[in-house]
């Protein structure tokens, strides 16, 4: 019995060493304990619970929050988890590969290559987080070398030495940005799109994450609107909230009707064209649109009415001459127009397009946007995402600018006319506006918080500019 207990104790000790320290060497155990102690104090300085330092995977993520590098922390947590599995199960991956008939040499090489690749990627993310910590604590860049070689030393110094204080606290940033919440909301329009979005949240990596917050606007009928924002600013999340695909804590009304409460009825009033084209290459243009009509039009629409609507849409988008052509034989511009036609078949009041000009040259893109302008002029609301807005900006009425604030939450930095946007941001080109709100590490000017606050204050006094 005593032997059994001793063996069990040693097995548990081996497991703890593998999970927490990656080694059974006393040197690594001691430095691991010092590292966690330093992290505990660093977390407390940043306004987080210190005990996160004791939880593998979670501590990497929380450290990234302290560094302002949350996306990198998520990935590093994943790689840390993979490392724990490898330490726990030992040669299980190798055994699994050889069990499939793979030779020992090939299996060994494959496991080695995968492990090496994951290790390199983990180091890259660790360097990015360390870069953020260096900025937050305002120390010299040479600390990077020490962090990579012996992270316990900078963790202990930054954590326990009162001389080193972070430039900001994680929770303080949230509290400051939450003050920017609009006290009012957009007035509901009987004709047009009204959006009063309080927040859109998800739960990931041990906490609730706010993807979008406080977005209020009213878009009149007949307006063509440009949606701008850098990567991760929440453009797609915002559009999914509008069309009801991913409901948020919001009130979204189209021509006075609540999109969420009457979703089945309103789904015919919204057309959404994704960036990727989902069409069968062996179908003709006509039968592609006829199939779309069967799916998109209400069930009480007769076959004759469906065919008439297909003919009408083909005429609008200039597809009548190629109605009998196979989809795979169409040009890039024709495929784009067909993709848009499939959603326009239901004659929606709100038309949303995600990069409809992707892959098109300037002339073809211009022609496509001219067509969208004509659709808006019939009284529709057209919202478009494009990464080359300046070549067609004269065709738009308004612009929505979303930006990631310091807490990585998508916020409304501006909504208004094109000319007002230029005055508000002090930039002539839309691409310069996006650059101004993008984070510095993304090649931007890092002014998102400034413009989010400026717009929020402007709304309180009754104007955006």
Would you mind describing this structure in some detail?
- This protein is globular.
- It has a 6-stranded mixed sheet, sandwiched between helices. Strands 2-1-4-5 form a 4-stranded antiparallel sheet, with helices on one face.
- It folds into 2 domains: 167 residues, no CATH class; 285 residues, P-loop containing nucleotide triphosphate hydrolases (Rossmann fold), CATH 3.40.50.300.
- The N terminus is likely disordered.
- Helices cover 50% and strands 15% of the residues.
- It has 18 helices and 10 strands.
- It starts with a helix and ends in a 5-residue tail after the last helix.
- It is of the alpha/beta class.
- Strand 1 and strand 2 form a beta hairpin.
Give the arrangement of secondary structure elements.
Elements: H1 2-21, H2 26-45, H3 58-67, H4 70-89, H5 92-99, H6 104-137, H7 143-149, H8 152-160, H9 170-178, E1 192-204, E2 207-220, E3 224-228, H10 235-242, E4 249-254, E5 257-258, H11 263-266, E6 270-273, H12 285-296, H13 303-316, H14 332-344, E7 350-354, H15 362-377, E8 381-385, E9 398-404, E10 410-417, H16 418-425, H17 430-437, H18 448-460
Parallel strand pairs: 3-8, 3-9, 6-7, 7-8
Antiparallel strand pairs: 1-2, 1-4, 4-5, 9-10
Give the SSE string: HHHHHHHHHEEEHEEHEHHHEHEEEHHH
The end-to-end span amounts to 79 Å
Spell out the CATH superfamily of the largest domain. Answer: P-loop containing nucleotide triphosphate hydrolases
- Under CATH, the topology of the largest domain can be stated as Rossmann fold
**Large-scale geometry:** globular
Q: Tell me the major beta sheet.
A: 6 strands, mixed
What number of domains? 2
């Amino acid at each position: 019995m005593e032997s059994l207990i001793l063996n069990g104790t040693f097995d548990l000790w081996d497991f703890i060493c593998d999970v927490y320290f990656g080694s059974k060497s006393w040197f690594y155990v001691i430095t691991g304990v010092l590292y966690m102690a330093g992290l505990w104090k660093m977390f407390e300085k940043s306004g987080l619970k210190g005990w996160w330092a004791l939880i593998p995977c979670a501590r990497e993520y929380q450290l990234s929050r302290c560094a302002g590098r949350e996306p990198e922390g998520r990935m590093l947590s994943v790689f840390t988890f993979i490392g724990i599995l490898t330490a726990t199960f030992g040669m299980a991956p190798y055994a699994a590969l050889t069990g499939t008939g793979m030779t020992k040499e090939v299996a060994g090489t494959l496991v080695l290559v995968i492990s090496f690749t994951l290790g390199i990627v983990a180091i890259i993310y660790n360097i990015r987080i360390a870069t953020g910590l260096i900025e937050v604590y305002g120390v010299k860049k040479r600390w990077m070398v020490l962090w990579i070689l012996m992270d316990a030393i900078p963790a202990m110094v930054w954590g326990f030495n009162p001389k080193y204080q972070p430039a900001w606290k994680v929770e303080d940033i949230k509290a400051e940005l939450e003050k920017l919440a609009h006290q009012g909301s957009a007035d509901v329009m009987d004709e047009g799109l009204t959006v009063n979005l309080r927040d859109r949240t998800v739960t990931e990596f041990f906490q609730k994450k706010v993807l979008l917050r406080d977005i209020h606007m009213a878009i009149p009928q007949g307006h063509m609107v440009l949606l701008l924002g850098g990567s991760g600013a929440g453009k797609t999340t915002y559009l999914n909230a509008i069309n009801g695909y991913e409901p948020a804590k919001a009130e979204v009304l189209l021509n006075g009707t609540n999109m969420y409460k009457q979703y089945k009825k309103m789904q015919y009033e919204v057309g959404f064209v994704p960036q990727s084209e989902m069409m069968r290459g062996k179908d003709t243009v006509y039968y592609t649109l006829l199939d779309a009509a069967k799916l998109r039009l209400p069930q009480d629409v007769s076959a004759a009415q469906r065919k008439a609507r297909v003919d009408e849409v083909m005429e609008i988008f200039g597809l009548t001459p190629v109605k009998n052509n196979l989809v795979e034989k169409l040009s890039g511009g024709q495929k784009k127009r067909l993709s848009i036609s499939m959603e326009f078949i239901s004659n929606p009041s709100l038309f949303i397009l995600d990069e409809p000009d992707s892959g098109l040259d300037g002339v073809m893109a211009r022609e496509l946007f001219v067509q969208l302008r004509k659709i808006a002029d019939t009284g529709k609301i057209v919202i478009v995402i494009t990464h080359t807005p300046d070549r067609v900006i004269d065709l738009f009425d308004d612009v929505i600018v979303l930006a990631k604030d310091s807490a990585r939450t998508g916020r409304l930095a501006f909504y208004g006319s094109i000319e007002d946007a230029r005055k508000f941001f002090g930039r002539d080109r839309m691409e310069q506006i996006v650059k101004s709100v993008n984070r510095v590490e993304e090649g931007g000017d890092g002014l998102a918080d400034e413009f989010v606050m400026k717009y929020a204050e402007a709304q309180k006094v009754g104007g955006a500019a």
